[in-house]
Amino acid sequence: MTMLPEAKLYVDGTLREAAAGRTFDIIGPWTGEVVGKAADASAADVDEAIAAARRAFDESDWATNVELRVGLVKKLRDLFEENKDRLNELARIEAGAALGAVGRAHVDMALDGWDDYLRVFPEVEWETDYGTREGYGFTSHRRAFHEPVGVVGAISPWNVPLYVNVGKVIAALLAGCTVILKPAPNTPGMGAIFGELADKAGFPAGVINVVFGSDPAEAGEMLVTDPRVDLISFTGSTGVGKRIMEKGAQTLKRVFLELGGKSAKIILDDAPNFAMEVAQTMLVFHAGQGCAVQSRLLVPVSRYEETKAILAQAYAGFGDNWGDFDNPQQIMGPVISQRQMDRVLSYIKLGQEEGATLLAGGNARPDKGTGYFIEPTVFVDVTNDMRIAQEEIFGPVLVVIPFDDDDAAVRIANDSEYGLSGGVSSGDFERAMSVARRIRTGSISVNGGMCIAGDIPFGGYKASGVGREWGREGIEEHLETKLIAWKE
Ligand code: NAD
After folding, report:
1. Residue to mutate (ligand 1; options 224, 240, 337, 417; most atoms within 8 A of CB)
2. Is 127 assigned a catalytic role?
């Protein structure tokens, strides 16, 4: 496998090694072997990045010069386009994206989202006029100014790293903030390229900084607890999200969290193309490592046996058409790491212990290579109180749960700590809409509608998060409101 170029830190306008000269290995999910090296930032590097971002925010015109920042964000976008082959390579080698998947949630969708941010940017409201009010014997004119919040610590996961990095960094930059990007230790290269290309684009020193290290928590915790950082924009697991909220409380940090999910797809009994709807829920894309994947399939009890037969056939049809690095038709590769593989396999074991039936898959597949391969897996005879129905597995594991009627479907879908996304299908649009309106989730697809794109807000209810990324709302998440009133 190709070795990736060394991932360098980008601190205060300089691309560089870690101050202590340390590096760590990037382990590729396809082979379990070293595919590159990355600078291993220490506390001193992170401290310098925070200081640089603070200085750039406080002392340069970045926060107020809209023309400068839109121009540079566009220039950076062009450089990402020119480097698309490298982005594809990083998505494949670091994150384990299959060749048929890089164009979707990985590279193309991320760059499309970037363009969407630029398109919605003119809609951002920078001022709100509240008019005049009489009081205390005089007239006051009141106007709110929406200003960039300041220094943003952007902490991202490994699953779709470019998409999440763009979602965070570009929104913050357009809002007028300065940023410290902290990618996951598995995918430092997809962070480092922001530093490299920002340098080429001519960003002022300190506006973008990129730090990463072998310790998954150290740099992130520094960002969360440092009073010089105004906002933490975090995407990752709910457990770490809770810790960030707790730790951030000491400096009353603004936290904006995109967390896990266990989204339900509800297929109602009158759904046209019932068989196709069921077959399409196979959880295989990027080995199920997506926060918004529909990992609980809910079908009418009257059609449960039929559903099992359809899924058995669909999984058999999918067969071995996955796990091949060079096959452009494939959308599923390995899971990210040995740790993730152990975790997913332990859930598969747990499902069997809980009394669910394995309809397909369930095994590690060392015959696919030395990497982290788990076959597409589906459990039936699942009840919603089982842990495999409640907890986010983050692997290619679908669970199928029967329901009696629409009310029960809504109850089961909502009986979850999460509330990120989901779907409803029915031949009766009003019926599908009425079910969708009752699901407590940040986005939901009705009859296959696409509820995730760069020009619309995305985020979670309940344990799936706080705040919204993407769209105008995603940029406005980085603004503070200052109200000025003057005597007339
Ligand atoms: P993770 O929570 O382990 O790590 C996410 C990031 O946080 C990484 O950069 C990691 O190094 C850092 N981190 C770890 N401990 C930290 C700490 N104590 N303080 C600060 N930062 C810390 O998540 P992961 O395993 O990288 O990613 C998978 C998770 O991400 C899944 O739960 C998935 O649902 C979630 N996710 C959510 C969305 C969304 O938009 N809602 C999108 C993608 C992934």
Report:
1. 240
2. no
